[in-house]
Task: inverse folding
């Protein structure tokens, strides 16, 4: 190559590399331009809105990040669904979804660091405090007072709870404020579940304490060492659900790492407590009898689900939404007897009543309007439209005559065809059903006409989807719904649930809480898997390690929050 | 905030320079101007992304909350460092990091070099290429999938236990993920499976650069295959090995995050955590409590300081031994 050619080549290569390096820097400007362009359009609409002072039907698109990944059929725009289109025709509003790809905290972090927010964000999975701390949300209470009477009505009971503990503003609308004081559950949310085949074969045993529960598993396992061609697994323990259930079996409300005495309002730290000792001792006993599967302590969620789907697991514990997918799969292959029936055993005889069902008034996370939204008034009006009972019926139940029927008493019910469509995910996604609940102003409980807010808790619908085995078991226990086994009274507990309390960034209590979690993690599995004679020593070591931490700081912090809730709510 | 001393300016020693002597004069620069020109974008890149952000180390002395500018944050001084160094766990965490890194390094180097040596001897081009492709495919699989594969293989009813029981090595299946002491080796071996093919590529490339006349001369002298490898191939790639070794030592403190996180079922497996918790997992767990950004930065500063020191020490030793040096 001649010298000149060499130089030309070098210059070309350098230019190429420089372009490559700078290419990454180019994008932000374009994005900003796009943003300012669309927001200009919105501003125009907003201005028009103010001038005319009637609900504008100008079409507008708001961007919304639900902080969740897209499902298989999730739409990109709300107007792609039937119900979404109806809503757009009535309000002129279309919602463009910005789903999460990958980790939620990362996406939240990126949004906060860049200041690049959509119009609305649902602060799911613990991201709400992040957004509030970053001052990404605007205060809503005045806007709601002025433009959102239906919102106010829907949230009237939890109005005080939505206020931020530090400055009293309302920054988000939480999900599912409960309407009414009656229990609407047909199937309990949590519970220690026993395979339906076992319940039947053992003659519908009395399951009052944990020992009863595990004995039943042992009996069935001895009689059936292999199930569906696999070795029978007695109890497959999912750590999160198992350790969280300690609150319930001990007769407390689910408050996370503490028990709150319902009389004295006193906070007791759960880790290292006497109840936990008894709990682990029981688990240890049954582990050494070979009832609890050792892999429970090391498996990840995929392995857990895989094992559950084999149908060879006799007992599990957890919330109903954890098993929905698995149970659907089993039912589809005709193995309903391998799905589970929930029970509410007590820790032991000394507990009066387990699984106290408290009214869950949400706080701690919800959907907010960001500082980058150009037309918050329009958004509030849109939310207000959604919060009306009629529209709630539309988004939860569907279209009358297509998705449900109304009988002569005004009660909603479903025909067998409509019932089938309840579990058809594709149909529901295309229709737009179940998309306006979590992450939108949407209620739970009962409408003013007495119907349940959503089909799953309407007795007419839920009981129609009972399987043959369900009916058989219910009849044998002399109850009409599985919830009755757990207790149907809906307690009104003011501080509940404590697990969604706000933890101040950098407060020493937060560090203590993390360290408590670490110590707990180190010892809990060891204690359960130990030989019976070693259990006491391991427990002693565990409590000693906990004693080295500053538990008072943690307790005081939570006690302060409990007291605040009783004062302000 | 890691300082990376690999990549960046490639300096080519001209014949006239002596050890440690550097003549920066226009004549020399002019001779190498093509190379300097070509490396210019990388220098700018390294400066912008690796040196410029160091001013962000300020975050380690604050309680950083995103959304506000760095100058409007609350200053907490050395609090994060205090928490870091007063934590009794820290020593164990460093031990775990170093142990896993060393095991990974030793296993990684030996297996990659051995594989390269073996592949180098293969004459059948098709076979060689097939083996290469198969061996470096796992490198592209994300650890999410790879960890699932590893966990499934190690299950009580999984293939590894089945083989062990069938061969009579153990009478009962072993619950591998319940024993902390196995964890380091599980990490090491799964790392080898994942990366041996990829790592061997650079050695194969280095081997291709060895003068074939040396092999012919050895053949004439009656050298056998193993002798050829020992006397020609290994010394021929030793500069590559030494440089990669020095750079690895610079990264000794970072033993990986995804691997440890996923193999412990998203860091919830308490039974092995004593051995599995390396600096990355520790920072993640503590960081959430102490405000991720600030605490993570403080730990990162500590990490960087140690890594740079290790790198300089390794470089110095290499220089003294008459080997290649990076700096």
Result:
């Amino acid at each position: 190559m001649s010298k000149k050619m060499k130089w030309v080549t070098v210059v070309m290569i350098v230019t190429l590399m420089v372009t490559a390096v700078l290419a990454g820097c180019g994008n932000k400007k374009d994005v900003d331009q796009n943003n300012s362009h669309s927001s200009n359009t919105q501003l125009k609409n907003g201005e028009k809105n103010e001038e005319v002072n009637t609900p504008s039907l100008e079409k507008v698109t708001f961007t919304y990040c639900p902080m969740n990944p897209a499902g298989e059929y999730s739409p990109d725009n709300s107007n792609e669904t039937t119900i979404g289109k109806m809503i757009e025709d009535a309000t002129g509003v279309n919602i463009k979804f910005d789903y999460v790809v990958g980790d939620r905290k990362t996406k939240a972090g990126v949004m906060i660091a860049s200041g690049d927010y959509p119009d609305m964000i649902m602060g799911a999975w613990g991201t709400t405090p992040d957004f509030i701390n970053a001052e990404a949300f605007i205060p809503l209470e005045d806007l709601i007072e002025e433009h959102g009477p239906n919102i106010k009505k829907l949230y009237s009971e939890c109005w005080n709870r939505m206020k931020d503990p530090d400055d009293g503003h309302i920054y988000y609308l939480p999900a599912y404020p409960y309407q009414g004081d009656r229990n609407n559950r047909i199937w309990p949310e949590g519970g220690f579940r026993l395979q339906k085949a076992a319940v039947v074969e053992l003659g519908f045993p009395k399951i009052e304490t944990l020992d009863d529960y595990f004995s039943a598993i042992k009996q069935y396992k001895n009689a059936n060492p292999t199930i569906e061609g696999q070795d029978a697994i007695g109890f497959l323990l999912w750590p999160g659900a198992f350790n969280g259930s300690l609150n319930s079996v001990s007769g407390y409300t689910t408050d996370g790492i503490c028990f709150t005495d319902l009389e004295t309002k006193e906070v007791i730290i759960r880790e290292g407590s006497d109840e936990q000792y008894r709990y682990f001792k029981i688990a240890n006993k049954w582990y050494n009898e070979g009832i609890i599967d050792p892999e429970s302590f090391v498996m990840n969620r995929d392995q857990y689900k895989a094992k559950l789907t084999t149908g060879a697991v006799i007992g599990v514990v957890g919330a109903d939404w954890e098993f929905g997918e698995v149970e659907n799969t089993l039912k589809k292959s005709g193995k309903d007897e391998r799905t589970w029936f929930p029970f509410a055993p007590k820790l032991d005889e000394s507990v009066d009543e387990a699984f106290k069902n408290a009214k869950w008034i949400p706080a701690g996370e919800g959907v907010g309007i960001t500082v980058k939204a150009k037309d918050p008034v329009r958004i509030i009006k849109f939310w207000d439209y959604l919060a009306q009972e009629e529209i709630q019926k539309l988004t939860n139940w569907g279209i009358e005559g297509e998705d449900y029927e109304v009988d002569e008493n005004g009660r909603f019910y479903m025909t067998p065809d409509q019932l089938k469509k309840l579990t058809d995910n594709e149909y529901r996604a295309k229709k737009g059903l179940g998309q306006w609940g979590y992450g939108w102003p949407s209620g739970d409980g009962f409408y003013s006409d007495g119907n349940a807010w959503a089909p799953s808790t309407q007795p007419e619908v839920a009981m129609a989807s009972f399987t043959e085995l369900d009916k058989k078991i219910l009849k044998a226990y002399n109850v009409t719904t599985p919830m009755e086994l757990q207790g149907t009274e809906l307690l009104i507990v003011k501080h509940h649930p404590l697990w969604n309390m706000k933890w101040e960034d950098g407060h020493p209590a937060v560090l203590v809480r993390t360290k408590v979690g670490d110590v707990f993690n180190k010892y809990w599995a060891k204690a359960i898997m130990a030989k019976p004679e070693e259990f006491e020593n391991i427990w002693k070591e565990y409590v000693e390690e906990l004693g080295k931490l500053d538990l008072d700081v943690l307790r005081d912090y939570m006690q302060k929050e409990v007291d605040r809730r009783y004062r302000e709510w | 905030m890691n300082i990376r001393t690999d990549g960046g300016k490639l300096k080519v020693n001209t014949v006239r320079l002596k050890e440690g002597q550097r003549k920066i004069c226009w004549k020399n620069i002019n001779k190498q101007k093509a190379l300097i020109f070509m490396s210019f974008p990388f220098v700018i890149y390294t400066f912008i992304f690796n040196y410029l952000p160091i001013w962000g180390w300020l975050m380690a002395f604050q309680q950083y909350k995103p959304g506000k500018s760095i100058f409007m944050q609350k200053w907490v001084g050395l609090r994060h460092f205090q928490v870091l160094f007063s934590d009794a766990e820290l020593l164990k965490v460093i031990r775990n990091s170093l142990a896993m890194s060393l095991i990974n390094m030793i296993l990684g180097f030996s297996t990659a070099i051995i594989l390269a040596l073996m592949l180098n001897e293969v004459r059948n081009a098709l076979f060689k290429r097939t083996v290469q492709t198969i061996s470096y495919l796992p490198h592209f699989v994300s650890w999410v999938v790879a960890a699932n594969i590893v966990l499934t293989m190690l299950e009580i009813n999984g293939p590894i236990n089945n083989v062990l029981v069938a061969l009579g090595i153990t009478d009962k299946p072993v619950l591998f993920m319940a024993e902390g002491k196995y964890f380091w080796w599980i990490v090491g071996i799964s790392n080898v499976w994942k990366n041996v093919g990829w790592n061997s590529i650079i050695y194969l490339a280095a081997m291709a650069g060895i003068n074939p006349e040396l092999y012919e001369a050895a053949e004439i002298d009656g050298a056998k295959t193993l002798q050829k490898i020992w006397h020609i191939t290994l010394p021929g790639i030793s500069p590559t090995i030494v440089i990669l070794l020095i750079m690895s030592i610079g990264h000794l403190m970072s033993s990986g995050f995804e691997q440890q996180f996923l193999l412990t079922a998203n860091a919830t497996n308490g039974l092995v955590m004593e051995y599995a918790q390396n600096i990355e997992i520790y920072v993640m767990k503590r960081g959430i409590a102490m405000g991720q950004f600030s605490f993570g930065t403080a730990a990162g500063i500590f990490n960087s300081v140690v890594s740079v020191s290790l790198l300089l020490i390794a470089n110095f030793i290499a220089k003294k031994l008459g080997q290649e040096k990076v700096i």
Remarks:
- Residues 1-5 of chain B have pLDDT under 50 and may be disordered.
